[in-house]
From TrEMBL:
Gene3D superfamilies: 3.30.460.40. It comes from the Bacteria. This is Nucleotidyltransferase.
Length: 244
């Protein structure tokens, strides 16, 4: 699916990156024992676009290829070969001054998807088989998007569960980076605590989120307000990392 998608998007000179559960699972599969606690077959792609007209042309081209079919109710949703669900999430110049994306015709479809533009400069280029190379959202970007998703729909407790799982395995995934670039954090918490490594990890995640959010005071304020509403120690650690 990515090969077919990449070829068409490249013809429009449009860049994209993988977000959502596939990006999460890619990072968590890096080492044995850190895999996600739940799986998905859905694919979310953040696509950098100029305007709604460009989105519609790309969608029409994907449908004309014969590999993709449209969803009857959601303008951004497609199905690859009748089975794989794919969401095309537009960001970039297509966003209005208030951060909304308006897609039309035939009907007005409105999106408010903050964070994708700020995360884009920090995505990771990944090479797969058969010459395919795509960009994947960073782990810290995933945490940002999941905090926003949870804030929009608090009933989506799976977003908090995903964040907590990421924090539990983050040290194992990023130990070299923590030792080399954030060793001071390991001296900020008592090692006898049962959640010592999680607190270290959450603090480092907060520091890296700080770099992503530095260009948007509005987004940083949103993330800060979400974390301040959480009672868990990991949320406090992330928030502290944002202020380091």
């Amino acid at each position: 699916m990515l090969k077919d998608m990449e070829g068409i998007l490249a013809s429009f000179e449009v860049d994209f990156y993988i977000v959502g559960a596939i990006a999460r699972d890619f990072h968590l599969s890096a080492k044995d024992g850190t895999d996600s606690i739940r799986k998905t077959d859905d694919v979310d792609l953040a696509i950098m676009l100029d305007d709604a007209g460009q989105f519609n042309m790309i969608k029409d081209t994907l449908l004309a290829s014969g590999n993709f079919t449209a969803d009857a109710t959601e303008h951004i949703k497609l199905y690859y070969k009748g089975a794989l669900e794919v969401d095309l999430i537009p960001f970039g110049k297509i966003e209005s001054a208030n951060g909304y994306v308006y897609l039309q015709p035939p009907n007005i479809f409105t999106l408010n998807m903050p964070g994708f533009k700020e995360i884009y400069p920090f995505v990771q280029e990944v090479s797969f088989a058969e010459g395919l190379s795509v960009k994947v959202c960073s782990v810290e970007g995933i945490v940002i998007l999941k905090l926003i998703a949870y804030n929009d729909r608090p009933s989506r407790t799976k977003d908090i569960s995903d964040i907590e799982h990421i924090i539990r395995v983050y040290f194992e995934l990023s130990d070299e980076d923590i030792y080399e670039g954030h060793f001071d954090v390991m001296e900020l918490y008592p090692v006898e605590r049962g959640d010592y490594l999680q607190l270290v990890s959450a603090r480092v995640i907060g520091r890296k989120m700080q770099v992503i959010l530095k260009e948007s005071d509005e987004l940083r304020t949103l993330i800060t307000s979400i974390l301040k509403k959480r009672y868990e120690d990991w949320a406090v650690a992330i928030l502290t990392g944002l202020g380091d």
